[in-house]
Design brief:
The complex is a heterodimer of chains A (215) and B (248). By secondary structure, chain A is mainly alpha-helical. In chain A, 75% of the residues lie in helices and 0% in strands. The longest helix of chain A is centred in the last third of the chain and has 28 residues. The radius of gyration of chain A is 18 Å and the shape is elongated. Chain B is mostly helical and 248 residues long. Chain B folds into 2 domains: 149 residues, no CATH class; 87 residues, no CATH class. Chain B has 9 helices and no strands. The longest helix of chain B has 30 residues. The C terminus of chain B is likely disordered. The chains are: A mainly alpha (215), B mainly alpha (248). At the A-B interface, helix 1, helix 2, helix 4, helix 5 and helix 9 of A face helix 1, helix 4, helix 6 and helix 8 of B.
Amino acid sequence: MAKMEMGSEAQEVTSTGASEVVKNDKKLRTRDLIYAGAFGAIYLVVMLAIVMGCSAIPILYLMAPLFVGIVCGTIYEMCVLKVRKFGAALILGVLFALVACGSNIIGLVLAIVFALIAELIIKAGNYKSKKMYLASFVAFNLNMACPYTMLQFARDEFLARTVEFYGQAHADALSAVAPDWILWAIMGLAILGGIIGAFVASKLIAKHFAAAGIV
Amino acid sequence: MNFELYGDDSTGVIKLDPRTKMVIFLSCAITSINMYNDQYMAGYIAVLCLILALCGKRIMALKAFAAFAVLFFLRYCIQMQGTGTGVAISLVSVLLTVFIFMFPMVVSLLLLIQTTRIGQFLAAFQAMHLPAAAVIPVAVLFRFIPTVADERAGINKAMAFRGIEMTMGNVVRHPAQSIEHLLVPLLFSSVDVMEELAAASEARGLSTNLVRTSYEEVRLRPLDYVVMAAFIAFAVYMLTFSVTGLTG
């Protein structure tokens, strides 16, 4: 729904073709859509690399939201700081949801909701406040917990799948470290990852990217 | 895995519409998660490689299938040997399983990226009157995945010149530094590519709201419908199959 609206806005705005002089620069230009898609590619590649690296060891697999948050925070912040309009975090969130939770509807919807919350946090800072940009990543990174909703809502099925895929020993290990409250723990890790990731992003952006005039 | 930046299907025996390839990709994403049967998996990957070969990437399809066969054989050996579950063995077997389970998605992604020009992709999805905000990010996403892999390889070489290695040990010992070494050059060079893409898109009139014309002829042919129907049917079949728990 929100996506559709954005589309019509983007089409209305960019008729001038010139990128910098647009009357209403609250709306997404083609340039912004390209930034969102490209940062989405970087985000997803890095995220998948981390999750693949973690997935061999059960406890690390459950901690993936923390690591992804720490590393990918900078990529997210670069994306939203480069666009500075409504839609960048949402597009990133939708691309993430489609790739990471494609076969898990609850996770898919939740991931998009978290991206929307991130958008609202940025909006609360009027697209200017640096603190709000950083804070929004904490909400955004909660989407890393979404693929794990399977663990909560269909725990038995999930473990049955793990037996099929990785064998009984792996499933036992996973179920030993995955009690009922695990989803909350994972969400906690995602929030922690978001906070650390935002700090890392703030440091790196101040040290490198702001100095180079990129954001 | 080496991606070429620009897809090409001029040497292909059959030409599939980008939308068909997209359906294949989505179907693979659903199917591979729900597929436990080894014979099905082997057959599915054989079909995907065949389509990739027919679309013009014969050598790549052959390589992909050979890689799959090796992984599959290794896992079979481990399963048959049955000497219990040592840590190393179970780790290797888990890694093999992850690779095998990712395989349909990788092959269908190769099909989508390697045999589709970005112009074809845009033309096909704009023909469906989808809004620009939905089409452009997805097109750029697929165009950019090879770029990220490419930049990563370049960064590795550059780091090697300076005697920095991205090994597991280094990552654990200096996590903050590793993140910086990975992200800063990756983002810097990617931002440059993005600026070029954005400039190119303006030169090509992507930012106007007029109807764009395209050299690419985009049309769904009967073959497209057949392939799409087959993949959707199989995905639905696998989904119901796994939900009812009749795994075997």
